[in-house]
């Protein structure tokens, strides 16, 4: 289930429940919305609900479609009788995540277009060099890469494809924690600017999920485990058992988070101070709102970094191209002068 679909589902379902609409009618309506896979999943929920199954049980049977947070929070909402409020909170959470993603995509859209244009211009130059002749001879290789004509364009695209495939493979390997690579996350966070921004966004997601879980009545052990899982990082998930042991030993929320050894001192201090002002749910809610603001600033930093990287690539292509042309012209003049 995509982020936007999850947000809209929670918003519509929560609104329907607030209006007193029967759950079966809501599910029947939802089964007519969205792509085929979503309609099929909701239709199955409707059929099982008609047989007496809960919404959470139906979602639990389809983990490949319904996200973990939606499954867990729906279960909590149904158990505590706060499903309507829980769905509205989930809609707010998904909307926040969607806003961050959309802001990032908008920020890098124009630089990405510039990069595509730059690749197109270079491809055109390579192709022209293969079809134009000068004095019966093929034009000189202006780029100095040995790429000319249609075959040169295809080779050029192949090189770019391999580069981006390698980048994508590295990202997937990191997400799946291949070879325990996520253990290097503390080193990643030490990169000036970009590292702290990545950490802030991760902590924002963690605090939002933890705040949501605690506010809906989930016990601290399950709430922390769910929040750690929401980071999509095995580095953070590794602290779940330590947090559980700390809570069972009588530790506060701050003590449990400190026991995980994955959170920065500044974050723990902020949670500790907020914890003095009220319950766990209230305290982490204050921290979540603060990190929401920080995450938006951090996303702008990351978008700026991505934008700068793309611009550097485009500028690098153009500068290399200009230098090659200047060197070719200078070489031609030098050859001409030597013949005099």
From TrEMBL:
A Pfam family reported for this protein in Swiss-Prot or TrEMBL: T2SSF
Gene this chain is encoded by: epsF_2
UniProt topology in membrane: Multi-pass membrane protein
Localization annotation: Cell membrane
Upper lineage: Bacteria, Pseudomonadati, Planctomycetota, Planctomycetia, Pirellulales
Provenance organism: Allorhodopirellula solitaria
GO CC, one annotated term: plasma membrane
Main location: membrane
Protein name per the record: Type II secretion system protein F
Transmembrane segments: 108-132, 152-174, 301-333
Keywords: Cell membrane, Membrane, Transmembrane, Transmembrane helix
Ranges for domain Type II secretion system protein GspF: 9-129, 209-327
Top-rank taxon, per record: Bacteria
Family membership noted in the UniProt record: Belongs to the GSP F family.
